[in-house]
Amino acid sequence: MAEKQPSNVEQWLKRETPRIRKALENASRYFDANDTLTVNTLEAVYAQESSFGTMLGERGSTDAVGHFHFKPNTAREYGLHVSKENDQRFDIDYAASAAARYLKDIDNLFSKTPAMSKPSTPIAVKNSRERYKFVLGAYNGGPTRVAEAQHRAEKAGKNLPLWTDVEKFLESENTKKSTADQMRQYVEKVPLHEAEFAIKSPADKKIKSKEPRKGKYRCTKGHWRTIDDRPVFICD
Questions:
Q1: Confidence class for position 224, pLDDT limits 50, 70, 90
Q2: How far is CA 205 from CA 11, 31, 65, 162, in A?
Q3: What CATH number belongs to 8-213?
Q4: Which of 93, 194, 206, 217 has the smallest CB count inside 10 Å?
Q5: Using CA of residue 83, residue 138, residue 115, residue 113, what is the dihedral sign?
Q6: How far apart are CA 124 and CA 150, in angstroms?
Q7: 3-state secondary structure of 230
């Protein structure tokens, strides 16, 4: 009888060092009781984005790179330094913190409809479990793409709180079918990974009930060295 091969999640968990787990747990403290986001969400997003740090890209790149595949502008919005000399998208502590804050900001964004609604502004999805799908879609493709799809679905008379209705309207002049398909696949895959992480991961799921850890970022000026076969940023 053939030996059962480990699942993708089981393989990713083998790469989850204590340092990585601690970084994800600390970052998950930006979530709260008003959302359904947990440390397992971060694990699943981390897995989908960079396969637990094995598909990082190049430092200083203008593409989406690093542990959570941030583009430079988004990374800088969340306080990360981006340059060839010091790219904090490649630091798991910084990157996980930015990813958690970005996910939470998107969740807040889709939790209420602005008074002055525009075609690019989100329409509220009150159910947190359903909103979670919109959050994942927006993390992958951007909140504007998802909001615009909501408005197109509204004009077509569809049920806006349901992702299965809105996802059909992702394609537009600004969103190619390949991009829309990628967003739909992302929303399909990440929850499946998260459900398995929730069962198999030793990460503390209750840590989000604690206040986010307060403290200053580490230095932004320094140089990279290779220590024990891994890049380490040394403060000058």
A1: very low
A2: 20, 11, 27, 27
A3: 1.10.530.10
A4: 206
A5: negative
A6: 10
A7: strand
Q: Quick: pLDDT tens for 105-143.
A: 999 999 988 766 777 889 999 999 999 999 999 999 999
DSSP track, 53-76? TT----TT-SSSBTTTTB-HHHHH
CA distances from 183 to 82, 83, 178, 187, 192 (A): 26, 28, 9, 6, 15
Locate the domains of the chain by residue range.
8-213
And the tokens for 206? 């209750």
Q: What predicted TM-score, i.e. pTM, was given to this entire model?
A: 0.86
Q: How far apart are CA 211 and CA 206, in angstroms?
A: 12
Residue 146 has pLDDT above 90, yes or no: yes
CA distances to 73, 83, 102, 220 from 80, in Å: 9, 10, 12, 9
Q: Which two tokens stand for residue 113?
A: 């409809």
CA distance linking residue 189 with residue 191, whole number of Å: 6
